[in-house]
Amino acid sequence: MASFDSHLEKIVRRLAMGTSRRGMLSRIGKLMVGSAAMFPVLPIDRALRFAEAEAAPMEDDTKCDYWKYCSFDGFLCGCCGGSPHECPPGTEASKVSWVGTCHNPKDGKNYLVSYNDCCGRTTCGRCACNSNVRERPAYEMNIHNDINWCMANNSSTVYHCTVSLVVGNAD
Ligand code: ABN
């Protein structure tokens, strides 16, 4: 070990005698720049990639682009004190509803989804979502979804928000 130390000491001394301090600093600087190009080490770069990875999955059922909302028309109850499938307190689910067929990209299957309005409180007004896949003009009520489905409830005209429930397989 002692011989290794003295050998290393000789090399370092020889290097030091043949190099100015400024020259050594410049070499160290070049080495650092070169290695940074090869191995990206700046924390800001990694943070950005993490943010992109976070944004990638389409699995958020609080957002209108969630697969189950393909034929949605209304306000998402998850933003109105309820959940994506539960009416908020003080409201009741509509007795009639609009049914759409949505494709779940996760398992590649199609599902029947019932969109029930929650009735009995004034319009929530948050998280409007109008996807309307396969909706047709209003002259055919069963294929038109821009309707207040609270019509069959006691609180017939007061619409608050809409929930969505998978009711069956559509394949
Ligand atoms: N189905 C949601 C809705 C309620 C009232 C009016 C239009 C659409």
Primary descriptors:
171 residues, rod-shaped, 27% helix, four-stranded antiparallel beta sheet, 6 strands, binds benzylamine, 2 domains, alpha+beta, Electron Transport Ethylamine Dehydrogenase, two-stranded antiparallel sheet
The oligomerization state is single chain
Distance between the termini: 75 Å
Query: Count of DSSP helices?
Result: 3
Backbone shape: rod-shaped
Average pLDDT works out at 80
Compute the gyration radius: what is it? 32 Å
* Main sheet record: 4 strands, antiparallel
- The CATH architecture category of the largest domain equals Sandwich
Strand content: 15-25%
Helix content: 25-40%
Low-confidence stretches: 42-57
CATH class of the largest domain: Mainly Beta
Counting helices, strands and paired strands, the structural category is alpha+beta
What's the number of structural domains?
2
- Give the tally of β-strands: 6
The CATH topology of the largest domain corresponds to Electron Transport Ethylamine Dehydrogenase
| Series of secondary-structure elements, N-terminal to C-terminal | HHHEEEEEE
Description:
The protein is of the alpha+beta class and 171 residues long. It has helices at 2-17, 21-38, 43-55, and strands at residues 73-75, 92-93, 98-104, 109-119, 128-130, 159-169. Residues 42-57 have low confidence and may be disordered. It binds benzylamine (ABN). The site of benzylamine has 9 residues, from β1 and β6.
